[in-house]
Amino acid sequence: SDQYKKARGGKSRWLQIFCEKCEEPLVKYQKDGPGILKRMYLDRMHGVDTVKWLTENFVCPNCETLLGIPIIYKKEDRPAIRLFAGAVGKKIISAKEL
Question: pTM for the complete prediction?
Answer without folding.
Answer: 0.85
